[in-house]
Design a protein that fits this description.
The chain is 38% helix and 20% strand. By secondary structure, it is of the alpha/beta class. It has 2 domains: 282 residues, tm_1862 like domain (pyruvate-formate lyase- activating enzyme, Alpha-Beta Horseshoe); 61 residues, no CATH class.
Length: 449
């Protein structure tokens, strides 16, 4: 949800009311300016971790070599931003998600101060889902007691693998045993809504290794599982090692081939880049397919491309994102979207704190945009079709004043004979068997309006 545009777009000037989108469809006046149907969800970014993982491209500071005053400055700035932004959530917030970084890397007193600030500035619905992320090795009984006292009722644990060799290969700071201990500690503390993150496509990982990690995870009966394929992000240590490894392999090849590989790494740094020490696309697809079937047998529903839950334990906060609902994102690098205006805070902690203390807006210079009708509809389709439920046709028409079957007739017709999409009741759904290549298919909805 990052933004790189430096202009604010006038929606009515961009697409005039009554403009024909096709021969059967027009835009209804006011469709772009309806008040949100749901109160904002709240995201708090904690940009600190014990040590940054080799694959991580998110903004965060390693506590190993960060100045000691950085957390103090972060909390000072966040307090000011909360005072300002709580006006955008005057009623009860529907969900809370504290992410990072590693929020549980904070010391007890800092974690308690953070929780007290949230409680002081925002009212959450009694039934609100309240999630925090954490990593094994940073979870103590004292920290969990603080979280429980402030009402945190869902924990997302970054396990990634129950295999020390795989964890070491991507620079994770914990062991498989520490992951097991963290799960037991969470259950003892009373967390009965637990998510475990696992990753496939890791260096040297084969199918047996992947299956073993999934089976260990299932042995703890988590209410939720998130399964992600490794992404090679430019600028990360893992990306650098992989690129250097490829260049070593082609030292004896012609220059044209080297330029081709360099271009691929630069433009498409994802799991489709292949090498001897990374599972190829076919194996990763098999890993995901096996996991989908295994988790289904274990009683989990694949309610989103990468997310599985027992009935009633779907992540409500993330469902809000995928359904196109409003959200507030606070902290350095936090992203918000309210009434179809999206903005991103500056990432550097000192700049963030300084702006706020001096009464300035902490938003990046090029970090605000008003979304056009075309962008809103494309995002609704791309995110909504990742959900098992799909995109609600009636909600789409109510929000945008147009019928998605008219707007996207061409792309739907193009895939009609390939069984990619299906209309079921009031929903348009993506066939689950295409979930591994969903991104390439869904990009076709961009720019079609």
């Amino acid at each position: 949800m990052m933004m790189n545009r430096d202009t604010t777009i006038d929606i009515d000037a961009t697409i005039n009311v009554g403009t024909k989108l096709d021969e059967d469809t027009t835009i209804c006046r006011g469709a772009m300016h309806r008040a949100p149907t749901r109160l904002p969800s709240l995201y708090i970014h904690v940009p600190f971790c014990v040590r940054k993982c080799d694959y991580c491209a998110f903004y965060s500071h390693s506590l190993v070599n960060s100045p000691k005053d950085l957390i103090v400055l972060y909390l000072e700035g966040l307090e000011v931003e909360m005072t300002k932004r709580c006006e955008g959530a005057p009623q009860e917030v529907t969900s809370l998600f504290i992410g990072g970084g590693t929020p549980t890397a904070l010391q007890d007193m800092d974690l308690e101060r953070l929780m007290a600030m949230i409680q002081r500035h925002f009212r959450l619905k009694p039934s609100a889902e309240r999630t925090i992320e954490g990593n094994p090795g940073t979870i103590t009984a004292a920290k969990l007691a603080i979280l429980r006292r402030f009402g945190i009722n869902r924990f997302s644990l970054g396990v990634q693998a129950f295999d020390d060799k795989l964890l070491s290969a991507v620079g994770r700071m914990h062991t498989a045993q520490e992951a097991r201990e963290a799960i037991k500690r969470l259950r003892t503390a009373g967390f009965d809504n637990l998510n475990l993150d696992l990753m496939f496509g890791l260096p040297t990982q084969d199918m047996a290794m992947w299956q073993a990690s999934v089976e260990v995870a299932l042995s703890y009966s988590p209410e939720h599982l998130s399964l992600y394929g490794l992404m090679l992000e430019e600028g990360t240590p893992l990306y650098k090692r992989y690129k250097e490894g490829l260049n070593d392999q082609i030292d004896q090849t012609d220059r044209t081939e080297k330029v081709k590989i360099d271009s691929q790494l630069r433009c498409d740094p994802i799991t489709t880049i292949q090498g001897d020490w990374l599972p190829d696309d076919d194996l990763q697809a098999e890993m995901q397919e096996w996991a989908v079937l295994r988790l289904k047998r274990a009683g989990y529903s694949q309610y989103e491309t990468s997310n599985f839950a027992r009935a009633g334990y779907e992540c409500q906060h993330n469902l809000g994102y995928w359904r196109g609902e409003d959200y507030l994102g606070l902290g350095p690098g936090g992203v918000s979207c309210l009434n179809r205006v999206r903005w991103k805070n500056v990432e550097e902690v000192r700049t963030y704190q300084s702006h706020l203390q001096n009464g300035q807006n902490p938003v990046e210079e090029a970090g605000q945009e008003s979304l056009t009708l075309r962008e809103c509809m494309a995002e609704r389709m791309i995110l909504g079709l990742r959900l098992q439920e799909g995109v609600n046709i009636i909600s789409f028409r109510n929000d945008f004043g147009v019928d998605l079957r008219d707007i996207y007739r061409d792309v739907l017709e193009r895939y009609r004979h390939k069984d990619v999409f299906a209309f079921q009741g009031d929903y348009l759904r993506l066939n689950p068997k295409f979930s591994f290549v969903a991104n390439s298919i869904l990009q076709e909805f961009v720019g079609l309006v």
